[in-house]
Amino acid sequence: MFEGIDLLVVAVVAVAFFLGGVLKGVIGLGLPLVAIPIIALVMPVAKAIPLMLAPGYIMNVIQMRQTWHARMPLLGWWPLFVGMGAGVGLGVHFATNAPENLMRGVLGATIILFVGLSFARIQIPKRTVENPAAGLTMGGVTGLFGGLTGVFGPTLAMYFLARQLEKDRFVWIMAVVMLTGVVFLGGALTAAGGLSQDQLAGTVAVLVPSWLGLSAGALVRRRVSQETFRKVALAVLAVMGVSLLGAALGWS
Q1: Contact (CB, 8 A) for 237 and 115
Q2: pTM above 0.90, yes or no
Q3: pLDDT given at position 206
C-alpha cells in the first residue's frame, strides 16, 4: 500500500481518520462509519478495513479503563461473543473474495440502515434481547458486518440500548465487545492473508489523525449541542451511504 506513496491517498486517509475521530469524540462511536466510506473513494474497501485495527484496539482499551468502575461479569454475554467470532470469520471470507462493487454496496446499505435507525430511535424490546438466542443472533450479525465492512457499532448499540444498561455500563460493555470484535477481525484477516506489513504500518500511522480527531471532538462536545452535531453527522453519513450504494448499483 505504501510502495510508491500516493500523497492524495495519504491525505484522504488522514482526513478520514481525523473526521472519524471527531465523531467518536462527540458521540462515543462512529469512527469506522466515517473513515471507511471516505477512504473507499481512493482505495478498495477490503484494503481500508485493516486500517481500523490499531485505532480499534487503542480507543476501546481506553474506554474500558475510563469506565472500569462499571465493569460486570462477562459469562452471561457468552452468546454474543460466540456469534461475533463466527460472524467475523464469515464476513472476512466474503470480504476477501467479493467484488469491489458488492463491498461498496454492503457498506453503503449498512450506513443507510444505521442512519435510519438512529433518526427513528428504534429499539428492540428488552424481553427479546435477554434471550440467549438473541445474543447469539446479534453477535453473528454484528460480526458479519464487522468482517465485511469494519463497522461493528450499529447493531451492538441497538442491542445494548435494548438491554437498558446504566450509561457507564453501556460504554464499558460496548468497549469490551468491540475490542473483542477487532481482535477477531485481526485474526481472521491474518488467517485469510488479508493483512500485509504495509497495512500493519498503516493502521499504526492512522493513530495520529485518529487521536487528533478524538481530541477535537471532545472540544466540540463541550461547545456545540450534541444533538445538533449528531443530526449533522448522520445527515453527512446518509449522503455517503447513498453515494456508495449508488456507485455499486451503477446509478449515474
Answers
A1: yes
A2: no
A3: 94
For cell 487521536, name the residue.
211
Q: 5: buried, middle or exposed (CB in 10 Å: 19+, 13-18, 0-12)?
A: exposed
Helices (H), 192-225: 197-205, 207-223
142-158 per-position pLDDT tens digit: 898 888 888 887 778 77
- Residue 158 domain-assigned? yes
Of the candidates 19, 16, 13, 59, which has an alpha carbon nearest to the alpha carbon of residue 232? 19
**Tally of domains in the chain:** 1
> 226-249 and 7-27 are packed helices; what angle lies between their axes, rounded to 10 degrees?
140
How far is Cα 91 from Cα 126, in angstroms, rounded to an integer? 27
Residue range 170-212, pLDDT digits in tens: 878 888 998 999 999 999 888 887 778 888 899 999 999 999 9
Query: 3-state class of 24 per DSSP?
Result: helix
Its domain, for residue 215, covers: 7-249
Alpha helices per DSSP H over 121-166: 126-129, 132-149, 153-162
Q: What would the grid cell of residue 228 be?
A: 445538533
